[in-house]
Amino acid sequence: MISNTDWQNTRSIFHHPNIKQKNRAVPYRLVAFDLDRTVLRNDGTLSFATRSVLQTLVERKIHIVIASGRPYTSLPQELLDFPGIEYAITSNGAALIRIHPFEYIDQLFIPAQQLQKLVHSYAALYPLEVFISGQGYASREYVEFPTSFGAKEQHINYVQSTRIPVENMPEFIFRHQDEIESMDILVPSAQINQEIRQILCPKYPELHITSSNDHMIEISHGNAGKGNRLIHLLQLLHLSPEECITFGDGDNDADMLRISGLGIAMENASEAAKKAAACITLSNENDGVAAALRLIFIT
């Protein structure tokens, strides 16, 4: 049941003009989606309804792309094994990967000089995590007690099963300073997140600084970002942004939602994501991605 009449009556996908594929002069050829709180339910699973719709799109030769802030090794195996899902944008656009056969199409690293400054400024204040070759490494205290640093209860298993704990994070980062795709500062509240981002963004204009949730400040190369990596992929596939549909829920999805032919935010999305999107679908718990794709391609 639609719970928010504001978006239902204004920017709901169910009231968007000419939303259906058959009504478009330029057909949609590619669908890219975020994972957490977007295509996945809160328990981290892909619903039967979503799986069914994605299978239909694969059969219709629509390109399916994962676009996540996660590193590659943290992507759900059920999506990596899903027949027809071809590409993954990971680490907030620091990496573009072909899934089968696996290969890096593009990979960006945080410049060492900026990385060193960030570590000197924040390593003593907050836990850090970094992504190297698609693997996540995090401060030991965060891996052992993630909820003490802002992570929600349902994310404990995800953190502990996907992050390799590191005892001395600054030393580890400096040892690998030329191969870090992304670094996260793990903060305890939305207020601290906002305050630090307000400091970092003007101070480091050459970096891509964003957030997928309240307890993570996510930093990568300035040319990263899901939107930039999606444009690169579209160029490789000889497609235009108008032929692309994107789904997301977080601030880190805003650039991708903005550049696509049809950017769709979830009902549970951040304000930045909703502002960047053309319209809004149901929440991830109510299979919003499946509902939108069924409306566009099937009904």
Blueprint of the fold:
Layout: H1 5-9, E1 30-33, H2 35-39, H3 48-59, E2 63-67, H4 77-80, E3 85-90, E4 95-98, E5 103-107, H5 112-122, E6 128-132, E7 135-139, H6 140-144, H7 156-162, E8 163-166, H8 169-175, E9 182-186, H9 190-203, E10 207-213, E11 216-221, H10 226-236, E12 244-248, H11 254-259, E13 262-265, H12 271-276, E14 279-280, H13 288-298
Parallel strand pairs: 1-2, 1-12, 2-3, 7-8, 12-13, 13-14
Antiparallel strand pairs: 3-4, 4-5, 6-7, 6-9, 9-11, 10-11
Helix pairs in contact: 3-13
What does this structure look like?
This protein has helices spanning 5-9, 35-39, 48-59, 77-80, 112-122, 140-144, 156-162, 169-175, 190-203, 226-236, 254-259, 271-276, 288-298; strands at residues 30-33, 63-67, 85-90, 95-98, 103-107, 128-132, 135-139, 163-166, 182-186, 207-213, 216-221, 244-248, 262-265, 279-280. The chain is an alpha/beta fold and 299 residues long. The strands form two sheets. The chain has an eight-stranded mixed beta sheet, sandwiched between helices. Strands 8-7-6-9-11-10 form a six-stranded mixed beta sheet. A hairpin with a 4-residue loop joins strand 4 (95-98) and strand 5 (103-107). It is globular, with a radius of gyration of 19 Å. 47% of the residues are buried.
